[in-house]
Design brief:
With about 260 residues, the chain is α/β, with parallel strands linked by helices. Helix content is about 30%, strand content about 25%.
Length: about 260
């Protein structure tokens, strides 16, 4: 049974994007503002035919919700998400490795459902597995251990007692090590060693999905898992500005405002 089922209406689409990394500290403040405005222009564009929008992790370069405080900024973006919800367009967030600490703020303030794990999404007769992709597949044991610590309830409780000015500054300093600080913003394609491809093949051997939709790798990819199943990686929004669109049983990768 699907975790989420959507009946897609005629002339409507479902959109997917990931890895905005809003608040990225390795670029200038002005460039960051322009990047946020570009994301808003994309949301304005797709609003005309979007039935649902899935934002598939690392939307923020860092996010942590304290009991009475959240990171400042992102006003244009958050306001746009609220407007989409108010216009009847469902928006879904997934946590990524940079914004693990989403709790109830988005649900309570914006009406946005937040997923912390991959989900099985059924759109009409098409099945998709959707998730950020961090910690999946073989290898990367260090991060998998680190994620267990970051998602541990005791560790989260302890961190919330660190003053936000200190906690957010520490986290932003850590985030500077992100591979997105590289000038081209692209990772090297690993071929058969791509851990998300290996993960998709393992899942497909057990349960069929028509499409596997992930982020995290910062590479826009379209790979056949078998003759009836494809893996897509959504890329990122620092250099590539790529996104996915689903309609009439078909999935496509697109680029917004190509240079």
């Amino acid at each position: 049974m699907a975790d989420l089922t959507l009946e897609l209406l005629p002339n409507k689409k479902v959109y997917f994007a990931s890895d905005f990394h809003l608040g990225l500290s390795s670029i200038s403040k002005e460039d960051e503002i322009q990047r946020e405005k570009k994301i808003i222009r994309w949301l304005d564009l797709i609003q005309k035919d979007a039935q649902a929008i899935f934002l598939v992790g690392d939307i923020f370069d860092f996010w942590h919700e304290y009991s009475q405080a959240v990171p400042k900024g992102f006003i244009r973006f958050l306001g746009k998400i609220a407007s989409l919800q108010d216009h009847g367009i469902s928006v879904y967030f997934f946590t990524g490795n940079h914004d693990l600490w989403m709790y109830d703020y988005f649900q309570e303030e914006l009406g946005v459902k937040v997923y912390t794990k991959s989900i099985k999404l059924k759109i009409n007769q098409t099945t998709l597995l959707v998730g950020h992709g961090d910690g999946l597949g073989p290898g990367d044991r260090f991060y998998k251990v680190l994620k267990l610590i970051f998602t541990n309830k005791i560790a989260q409780w302890l961190f919330k007692w660190v003053h936000p000015d200190i906690g957010i500054r520490l986290a932003k300093s850590w985030s500077k090590s992100s591979r997105l600080k590289n000038s081209d913003g692209e990772d090297k394609f690993l071929g058969d060693k791509e851990y998300l491809i290996q993960h998709c093949k393992k899942v497909e051997n057990e349960t069929h999905h028509d499409f596997y939709i992930f982020g995290h790798r910062h590479l826009p990819l379209e790979i056949d898992i078998n003759s009836t199943s494809k893996y897509y990686n959504l890329g990122e929004w620092v250099n590539q500005f790529t996104y996915g669109a689903f309609a009439e049983g078909q999935f496509s990768l697109n680029t917004f405002e190509k240079k």
